[in-house]
Amino acid sequence: MEEPLLSAHVEDVERGPQLDSKDNAESIWDVMTFRSITSVMNHGIVKQLDFEDLLCLPGDMDPAFCHNVLSSCWRDEECRPEPFLLKAIFYAYGWPYLRLGVLKVFNDGLGFVGPLLLNRLIHFLQQGSPHWDGLLLALSLGLTSVLKSFLDTQYSFRLAKLKLKLRSSIMTIIYNKCLCLTLAAQSRFSEGEIQTFMSVDADRTVNLCNSFHDIWSLPLQIGVALYLLYTQVRFAFLAGLAITILLIPVNKWISELIANATEKMMKQKDERVRRTGEILSHIRTLKMYGWEQLFSKWLMETRMLEVKHLATRKYLDAWCVFFWAATPTLFSLCTFGLFSLMGYQLDAATAFISTRRLSRFLQCSVSKHEENVILPGDGSNISPKDMAAVMNDACFAWSSSDDKPESTVLNHMNLSLPKGAMIAVIGEVGSGKSSLLCAILGEMKLIKGSIHSSGSVAYVPQVPWILAGTIRDNILFGRNYDSERYLNTIKVCALDIDISLMAGGDMAYIGEQGVNLSGGQRARLALARAIYQGSDLYLLDDVLSAVDAHVARWILQNAILGPLMSQTTRILCTHNVQAISSADLVIVLDKGEVRWTGSSVDLVASSHSSFFQQNEFDALCSGQQELVLDNSIHGRENKEHTHSTEVVEEIIEEEQRKEGRVEISVYKNYASYAGWFVTIVICLSAILMQATRNGNDLWLSYWVDTTGTSQKGFSTSFYLVVLSIFCAANSFLTLVRAFSFAFGGLQAAVQVHNRLLDKLIDAPVQFFDQTPSGRILNRFSSDLYTIDDSLPFMLNILVANFVGLLGIAVVLSYVQVFFLLLVLPFWLIYSKLQFFYRSTSRELRRLDSVSRSPIYATFTETLKGSSTIRAFKSEEFFQHKFTEHVTLYQRTSYSETVASLWLSLRLQLIGAFIVTFVAVMAVAGSRSYLPVDFGTPGLVGLALSYASPIVSLLGNFLTSFAETEKELVSVERALEYMDIPQEVMEESKAQDPHWPFRGMIEYKNVTMRYMPTLPPALRDVTFTISGGTQVGIIGRTGAGKSSILNALFRLSPVSSGYILVDGLNIVDVPVRDLRSRLAVVPQSPFLFQGSLRDNLDPLGKSNDTTMWEILEKCHVKGEVEAAGGLDIHVQESGTSFSVGQRQLLCLARALLKSSKVLCLDECTANVDAQTARLLQNTISSGCRGMTVVTIAHRISTVLDMDDILILEQGKLVEQGNPQALLADPSSKFSSFAKASTM
Q1: Beta 1203-1208 vs 1211-1216: how paired, if at all?
Q2: Contact 488, 559 (CB under 8 A)
Q3: pLDDT value of residue 154
Q4: How far apart are CA 915 and CA 898, in angstroms?
Q5: Helix 875-926 and helix 937-976: axis angle, to 10°?
Q6: Is 1003 helix (H, G, I), strand (E, B) or coil?
Q7: How confident is the model at residue 233, as a pLDDT?
Q8: How far is CA 603 from CA 541, 1074, 1236, in A?
Q9: Secondary structure letter of residue 58 according to DSSP
């Protein structure tokens, strides 16, 4: 079945991007020598590389093509009883991988030809025979090295290509899974866990490719090596073999411990990434509460557990390094082979953990409405054509874990919702209104009964999901632009004024989750997106509560009941009385069951009439006044909007990347994080370790020469004692180096994370508004993983390679004087090559990091809004967008791979030349053709055996140097965030512990901007709030109501004027101290994962009795008791409670604080009118003596207050007693009141 699909796509890819025409035209020689990368390198030397400079991808590496290959194999695998991702990967990429094995056999075989020829050459030098044999052997040795260079690099190139294909397939397959996974199924995994699938597990699975060929290749190499040893030393090799065999169980035991530590470490890493994500998502709220340090402390506890398991791994690794490096020199080959075998098993163990985790995730049931649908033939009687949705005795649950019994949220739902009707769903907080919409969308798990819905769907969730992008992108949502419909949509959603005020109009850039929009603007933007789609069925979750009375009335009349939606089915969850009275059908829910359905007229007479109580104002005022009012604003503001897109991009800053080489300061910083003492110990032990190894070899060759000549040497026991001393010193120094490296790496990892976290926690809110959280999360996941794990590993290899090269150069110069002639020209070529390569490789690594951030940002964003994407059937659009990001990432990685192999090949060829030179010189010297005598065969043998590994050592040194530089880019990126601006934390004056005493607040000529380039959010605002009074702040959406609180909490600096609380200028109060002494209920309710007790009182200052009293006052005690008391576990973002319940819990939290100043930002917006009234009474009675500042949309909320302030475009336009203002028909407040029926 898949065959045609695949072949169609292959043609498509080959026709589609004209990327491969160039690729196909390359000659064999160009492919062998990696000529294609030279154009990129030429650019890299003269300028900073950009994405357009990169190599094009070959057709078979296109991510869309790779995705199709793996996903078709995974679909087949899913049909089996126990699907496993690794099998699907094998079916997709197994054959090309096995073909690579053939190339590896040739390559490994060739590796043994060199030592055999070297052996023959040394024999020739010792015995002396016709000289042409010697020359032939010397040249053959060189040619073998050249051939091996080409085979080596081709094998690495093809393996790297395969790994890149696999990586893009796994990334796209994980993303697709997230797009189609229902919210119920998603609840089995935490957000941090799903993000780790993408950031870590995908890479680990790909790294398995390295291990599988080594499983057969290493035993083969060891077998051949042992045979060659046997031919040299007969049965003496058994001593070395015995040591090696003894080490097998030790290494196996160590590898099991490492795998165990890795699994535990990954769990803590998931949790740490989740907590970091939570802090970043809610940083504004955390700062208002003054909790950021508390949360960072909790995060640090998780990090310490992660580091504990990381330390176990690092120290076990150090033992492995010790066993590998310290085994006697004679048998280093077989021991190294076996160690590597064990080492690769370690990698395989961690990768198997990753593939198991991914398999579990990919097996989750997908969002298929089919499971919920009654097929037409089965129940045509219950789904008549004129019904938009029908439920028959349907029960739904949120949890989808297979092991726990389901607790149903909606029970025995029997509903028939007619097409074209306006349906209002009402009920108290937590009655199941939002769940009903999710059930219709297919996001919940159907436990029993049936559900059927027809037609296209548009969905506006209660917490609007806003894309990072322009306003137009958000409304079009991947659809084509139709100017007439677009303009009508904007108008009916009352967005036209807001857009005209924005720099850049509808092309203004909106930050992540709509950070630079007010709550009301976010709600209207989400509604506009739904209306523009022109769907058959609209599911609107409480869209009117986030906007003020004027706008709510306008939206209801012109949008929901207006011509654009009048022919469609609209299901609106609401507490808005006017909307309820306009509905054709009203559904009353209570505790997840349908209590009543009927018309709004019948509702008044029913027992549920309390939802329908009117204010003391009638709704005679028509919407035309507002329209006139709106147009007057229009005329005035259009003049302001002249310079359009210059300011637009400033909201979100471009991700910075450094230019040129990694600066010395980065190395210094890393060394200081690791500790200078440790750094010096590492360098000294490495140099001394190499010196003892070289001394060991020189002593051996001296021993060989003295026993081979007639001169009198020392006794055998003396030679052995000296040899043993060298061995013991070498072993000890190896141990010191291995452990000091492990210790230093851990120190650095801990320091970097702690510094980074401290700096971020103290950064101003503006930094988070301008920086997408995916970008910051990339530092905390990928970059930190590099600093934890691969950077110390690469540095260790770099130091080993450097001292190894130094040792070889010293010994060669001592043994063969002519080698010194080569040093200068050779060094010039070498430095030229490495300069040419490094300038490009650094840039490529930086591009690689920059191209990775959008992948994580898009992934995180999609996770949050997947239900909206599915409702709009926009999966394909998002999949395409994500594939574009992966393609860019794929291109940077491909260019990086080709560049490193370009270098590797040229270095290996230089090495081959050195070997040939030393061999030819040795032959010439032995025939006395040269004026200098090359001394004994022992030393010549040593010189040749040292010249052979120079090939790999040179390559390894430069590769490890370049790799270390690339890995250090992660440190560089972390250091970037250590220079971010900080909030001023400490001020000089000592505070009275009882301040504020009365709660008197004075604003004096306050002007505030969110950014220097943006227009002011508050313009010269002056007012006084007496202590102990209750004040309401009202105004249109975007009038600057929330900005009043932002200024009070010092979230944004005041550009002129000042604010006094009880006569004290708030600038003189330490900012955390200030925030901790004011209580607030933010606009978007915030609950975190943990117990409810911690959520209400994280600092542990209140006792249970007080908590229960406050919960009762906030009318949420019953729900908490039903859920299981104060110790119940609250899910991430508080999803275990409805939005209304979350607001009530946040109010309870604020009341527990018992501060003299309580600020409420629309805290009753998402609760029904009845609960809102009860809360109003709670606040007025329970907060006597406190200053209460309430931002309100419901006029009824502010009627009983002592004072109200009315804002318009950041200016205070009216202030006074609400009753007095109401009596004055010309006041702004009375026009607001007339528009309100809430």
Answers
A1: antiparallel
A2: no
A3: 92
A4: 26
A5: 150
A6: strand
A7: 60
A8: 21, 48, 20
A9: P
**Cβ-based neighbour number of residue 1068 at 10 Å:** 13
Instruction: Name beta bridge partners: 509.
Output: 470
Identify which of 153, 190, 353 has the alpha carbon closest to the alpha carbon of residue 276.
190
- What is the C-alpha to C-alpha distance for residues 489 and 353, in angstroms, rounded to an integer? 50
Among the residue ranges 400-409, 706-715, 740-749, 1202-1211, the one predicted with the least confidence is: 706-715
Residue range 237-251: mean pLDDT, rounded: 72
Report the alpha-carbon distance of residue 987 to residue 524 in Å, rounded.
41
- Which has more pLDDT, 655 or 732? 732
The token pair at 1177 is 């009474």
Short-list 663, 550, 575, CA closest to 975: 663
d(C-alpha 560, C-alpha 389), whole Å: 19
How far apart CA 1039 and CA 1018 sit, in angstroms, is 9
| pLDDT tens, residue by residue, 429-472 | 778 888 898 898 888 888 888 888 888 889 998 888 888 888 88
Gap between the Cα atoms of 1124 and 814, Å rounded: 80
- The percent of residues in the chain predicted with pLDDT above 70, rounded, is 83
Reported confidence tier of residue 633, pLDDT bands at 50, 70, 90: very low
Structure-block tokens of residue 879: 């999949």
d(CA 194, CA 364): 13
Both tokens of residue 12? 């498509």
Q: Helix or strand or coil: residue 11?
A: helix
Question: What's the number of CA atoms in the CB half-sphere (13 Å) around residue 173?
Answer: 28
CB atoms within 10 A of CB 638: 12
Which amino acid, residue 500? S
Q: At a CB cut-off of 8 Å and minimum separation 6, what does 486 contact? A: 472, 475, 476, 532
**Residue 585, both tokens:** 């059908």
Our separate counts of H helices and E strands in the chain read 44, 23
**3-class secondary structure, 1051:** coil
* Residue entry with tokens 């989740």: 274
With tokens 């980074």, the residue in question is 756
**C-alpha span between 9 and 1032 (Å, rounded):** 62
- Residue 32's Cβ-side half-sphere holds a number of Cα atoms within 13 Å equal to 10
3-state DSSP percent of the chain in helix, strand and coil, to 5: 65, 10, 25
Report for 166-175, 212-221, 317-326, 842-851: range of highest mean pLDDT: 166-175
> pTM score, two decimals?
0.70
Query: 457 - beta bridge partners?
Result: 537
Mean pLDDT taken over the chain? 79
**Encoding tokens for residue 382?**
């219950």
Most confident of 521-530, 651-660, 907-916, 1180-1189: 521-530
Centroid of chain to Cα 42: 33
CA-to-CA distance for 1058 and 1005, rounded, in angstroms?
A: 7
Given a contact cutoff of 8 angstroms between Cβ atoms, the answer to whether 85 and 205 are in contact is yes
Looking at the DSSP bridge assignments, the partners of residue 445 are 397
C-alpha 1115/C-alpha 1113 separation (Å) is 6
The amino acid occupying position 988 is: S
Coil/strand/helix, residue 414: strand
Residues 1067-1105 pLDDT 10s: 888 888 888 888 888 877 888 888 888 888 888 888 888
Contact yes or no for 773/512 (Cβ under 8 A): yes
Residue burial 890-927, b: 16+ Cβ < 10 Å; e: rest? bbbbbbbbbbbbbbbbbbbbbbbbbbbbbbbbbbbbbe
Span 1181-1231, pLDDT tens digits: 777 788 889 888 777 777 888 888 988 888 888 888 888 888 888 888 887
Task: Convert 203-226 into a string of H (helix), E (strand) and C (coil).
Answer: HHHHCHHHHHHHHHHHHHHHHHHH
Within 10 angstroms of residue 1027's Cβ, the number of other Cβ atoms is 17
Residue matched to tokens 């035209």: 25
CB neighbour list of residue 949: distance below 8 Å, 6 or more residues apart: 808
Residue 66 tokens, joined: 């790779």
